[in-house]
Design a protein that fits this description.
The structure holds two protein chains of two kinds.
Chain A (H helix, E strand, L loop, with lengths): L3 E10 L2 E11 L4 E5 L6 H8 L7 E6 L2 E2 L5 H5 L2 E4 L11 H6 L3 H4 L6 H14 L15 H14 L4 E5 L7 H16 L3 E5 L3 H7 L2 E6 L2 E7 H4 L2 H8 L2 E6 L6 E6 L8
Chain B lengths: L13 H34 L7 H11 L9 H35 L12 H15 L5 H22 L5 H26 L3 H11 L7 H20 L2 H4 L5 H6 L4 H23 L5 H13 L3 H25 L8 H23 L1
Helix pairs in contact in B: 1-3, 1-13, 3-8, 3-11, 3-12, 3-13, 4-5, 4-6, 4-7, 4-11, 5-6, 5-11, 8-11, 12-13, 12-14, 13-14
Classes of the chains: A alpha/beta, B mainly alpha.
């Protein structure tokens, strides 16, 4: 079981701090939602946590190992990143794109094609894309491509899964299916950390939240304790009521524009 | 630390597996067909020319020089095969393979389907180096100068693109155009000030690309470059696939992005420099052949690189045969033939891309 821990992550860009001293932990077997308004530094933080770009300072640990001290391939066997809106010029088939996720396991001369085919098929099935296996990625819609990229990360078979807006471009059924998939990944022991735009999704599908604003942590902790009306008003400037879904028992957020300040 | 187990029944995947396996078989058989086609093309191309030579004479000449018995041809006919035509045709094959390989690798590294050694300024840089040596008599070997020029042009292109911001495909290509124009202008300047009489012809051959002067040294340089640089490139081809979704995605797959990019671009510059040093700058091979092969077998680089190399070799053997025979006894620079064939294909590719995006 591999959890994730990061301390004092600092990333600057264009002369300002995009991520400013962020601490972050994610337990294995849980879904952690990273939320915050646009420009809060969510994507930058995720790239640092995935150790694809070294932050200016701070540490990232996978389990008890320093992520940046690990050999690259070994690191890629521990953590997978699903980027937001990754595009390609290359006309790979969906199956070949997903097979890229096997690279850290196989190396350049990967021999076990049967194993690769098995994992690719399972990953495509998990995101409901088996029928698209032979299509070119460049011919997919935004939502289909997003799911193919998720399948690529699943094929990487890592104990840590980092996702940047994984429900982007998806229709509502695919959004909920993706979130349910993340939950089931967590149930089987994966550490899932996802930047989410939709507060309702964060409320209903995450165990804990990390709230960012202006590159700093505003709040962090168990979702039900942190994602409360007061915080939502402070961070997003909107009013919120937390309800309980009568069917699923999950929290539901009812949001409304802020009530006008009474004049007297 | 094992990955979580996802137990999913794989029944619906049977079709997928068959498909994937079928495409692998296709790639191998396409490769086999191309390899046979290349050998046949070389043998047949040797028979074409003012003196008519039969295919069996080609084999006999080769066999006798390799010391495998066989009665030798008359010295004159043997000279035509062994001293003139065979080295030139083998050089054409190697140059075609090298340029197609370089193009395919560059297209992957710059994530730009229209990239090739021409576009990033490598060819014009190599030409400048070579022309400078021919004309100024600088005490350098031609291949060394061509490589130096290619490398300098590549560094200039990438430095310029970096100075303009992140190394995006569009910036890289625009920087390549700028560097290419400058190198071309300096080449013209050098010619303008120093060329006299005979050297014009030699230089024209350079600028338009010609294999007319290729002998066994040229074969050694180009085949050597393929063996030393081209084959290792094919062996690491899969790493190029990882660049498909961009640098961040490649890094997340454990690829040391910057190191790989610089090492492979350097290797490509070396390969191009070696080719250009014997052939001058021949356009469109690096652009068109990888595209044609992609249409056949898909863009996975482990298939694409070897098949592009084979296709490039066959293409240039025939382009050069056309160049020396179509208007015999006058000879066209082979770069003219590849441009006449390649430019319309390039135009078609542009139109196809518009339809797709």
């Amino acid at each position: 079981m591999t959890g994730l821990g990061a301390e004092r992550i600092q990333v600057g860009a264009g002369g300002r701090l995009v991520v400013d001293g962020v601490d972050c932990t994610a337990q294995s077997g849980t879904v952690t939602a990273v939320i915050g308004p646009n420009g809060a530094g969510k994507s930058t933080l995720l790239r640092a946590l995935a150790a694809v770009s070294r932050p200016d300072s701070g540490t990232v640990r996978y389990g008890d190992q320093d992520a940046f001290a690990l050999p690259r391939r070994q690191r890629a066997r521990l953590a997978a990143l699903v980027e937001q809106d990754a595009t390609t010029e290359l006309d790979l088939t969906v199956a070949d794109s997903v097979a890229l996720g096997r690279l850290p396991h196989e190396g350049l001369w990967g021999a076990d094609l049967a194993e690769r085919d098995r994992v690719v098929t399972e990953s495509l099935e998990a995101v409901g894309m088996v029928a698209f296996a032979d299509r070119r990625v460049t011919s997919l819609s935004g939502g289909e491509r997003q799911r193919a990229l998720l399948a690529k990360a699943l094929a990487q078979a890592t104990p840590l899964l980092l996702l940047d807006e994984p429900t982007n471009h998806l229709d509502i059924a695919a959004q909920l299916a993706t979130l349910a998939l993340l939950r089931s990944m967590a149930a089987s022991g994966t550490t899932v950390l996802a930047a989410l735009h939709d507060l309702g999704h964060a409320a209903a599908y995450s165990d804990s939240v990390l709230v960012l604003a202006g590159g700093r942590v505003v709040a962090a902790g168990p979702t039900q304790e942190v994602l409360v009306p007061d915080l939502i008003r402070r961070v997003y400037g909107v009013d919120a009521v937390v309800l309980t879904h009568p069917g699923t028992g999950r929290p539901v957020l009812a949001l409304s524009e802020p009530a006008p300040v009474p004049t007297r | 630390m094992t990955a979580p187990d996802r137990t999913v029944t794989a029944v619906p995947g049977a079709n997928l597996r068959d498909l994937v396996r079928a495409s692998r078989i296709t790639a191998v058989s396409v490769g086999g067909v191309l390899a046979v086609l290349l050998v046949v093309s070389i043998a047949v191309a040797v028979t074409i020319g003012p003196a008519s030579i039969r295919v069996d004479e080609v084999w006999r000449s080769i066999a006798s020089h390799l010391g495998i018995g066989a009665s030798p041809l008359t010295p004159l006919r043997d000279g035509i095969v062994w001293q003139l035509r065979l080295p030139r045709i083998l050089t054409a094959a190697a140059v075609g393979a090298g340029l197609a390989l370089s193009g395919a690798v560059m297209q992957a590294l710059t994530r730009n389907a229209l990239a090739d050694p021409y576009l990033l300024g490598l060819s014009s840089g190599a030409s400048l180096g070579a022309v400078a040596v021919v004309l100024l008599g600088a005490g350098l070997l031609l291949p060394v100068a061509a490589f130096g020029g290619a490398m300098a042009a590549l560094v200039a292109t990438l430095a310029l693109a970096r100075a303009a911001g992140a190394l995006t495909p569009a910036r890289t290509v625009l920087a390549g155009v700028a560097v290419s124009s400058l190198a071309g202008a300096i080449t013209s300047l050098v010619i303008f000030w120093t060329a006299t009489g005979d050297s014009y012809r030699e230089i024209l051959g350079w600028l338009l690309g010609s294999l007319a002067s290729a002998r066994w040294e040229a074969v050694a340089i180009t085949v050597g470059a393929i063996a030393i640089i081209g084959i290792p490139l094919m062996l690491v081809a899969r790493i190029l696939d990882a660049f498909a979704f961009g640098d961040t995605s490649a890094a997340a797959l454990g690829v040391p992005v910057d190191a790989v990019r610089w090492v492979l671009l350097g290797a490509t510059a070396l390969l191009t420099g070696a080719m250009v040093s014997v052939s001058g700058s021949i356009g469109f091979v690096g652009l068109v052949l990888p595209h044609a092969v992609r249409l056949l077998t898909g863009p996975g680089h482990r298939r694409l690189l070897p098949l592009s190399a084979l296709a490039g070799a066959i293409f240039l053997v025939w382009a050069d045969t056309a160049a020396r025979d179509l208007f015999a006894p006058r000879e066209l620079p082979v770069g003219v033939v590849t441009a006449i064939l390649g430019a319309p294909v390039f135009a078609l590719l542009l139109i196809r891309r518009r339809g797709r995006t």
